[in-house]
Amino acid sequence: MRPTLQFPDSLFYRRDCTSNIVSDLTGEFSAEFRLGVARGLEQTPDLVRAFIERGHEVVSHGYRWIDYGEVPEDVERDHIQRAVTILTKLTGTRPMGWMTGRPGPNTRRLLVEAGEFMYDRDSLADELPYWLRINDKPHLVIPYSYETNDNRFNENHGFISLPTCGTLSIYFTGKAATAHRNCFLLVCMIDL
User: Which residue segments constitute the domains of the chain, with CATH numbers given?
Assistant: First the structure.
């Protein structure tokens, strides 16, 4: 990776410390690590090993974190294959799930054509999983939610009251308690 930012070393700020914190938290709270951008995980193999040792599933979050809305189909197909290759090498198993995050018009079809994916998460269309037929094959979609997502920290809104780590922690805890209460017969999923 060749940083192009004004402060290129900011891309690597406290990576070692952050990796340990994330690994410890997922173990302490029985959380499951899910999404991983292949190029990013490739830079932190120790973190990936720690997640795998704790039994976490790594879902591909693509090869790079880019918007595939206008990416040519052959480039996107190549990126899917690269991500699969990298994650398979890092984890010892092919990823079962996928979430591009910013899919293009070809993403879901390319995933089905690539085969062996059990599901994708590139939908905000519902709160419950649903099935589609893509190229005459059944394909499971497990919708994603922005409600409890770190994207709340993406913008600098000045001095207005915004979520802090503390307020988001309270919100996430409440969300988990509500899901636990309401989903005692079902497996519940919360996107954090």
Answer: 12-144 (3.20.20.370), 153-192 (no CATH)
